[in-house]
Amino acid sequence: MVQIQIIATPDPALIAAATRRRLRTPVLVARSAGWVLLLVTALIQFVTGDLQPGLLIAGAALALAVPLVLLNRTARRSMRGGRPATYEISDGGVARSDEVGRHAYAWRAFRSVEALSGQLMFSLRGGRWVRVPTTGLSTAQVDQVLGAASAQGLRVHR
Question: Is residue 121 within 8 Å of 21, Cβ to Cβ?
């Protein structure tokens, strides 16, 4: 039986790490597409001698601006005004509540859980995720949560 409760305020460093981890694929795609456009722009410049400002701007935006905006916007949204939240992990699933509301998820709503430094990332169907800080939990308690998740059929990434 699992019954763990955690009360924590949002930690910007943990949120930034979680955001980078969860958005690594879209950020990599945007950066790669941007660098390809910049390479095409350089090749056109070299072959024809004509600068293509549209390609140059699009490449720079995809390589630099889009990843920064995506990461910053997602991290800011995750801060949720800096309010303390209560996280509950039980045999029924995972819940998060604060002064504004409560969101509870049954274990079957999750696809996987990933253990990052200082937090657990529960991946929901549809690309969303629930971040649970593990501040104040012992290694045994974190292992207990990961064991419960595995018993419920979630993929566990350590």
Answer: yes
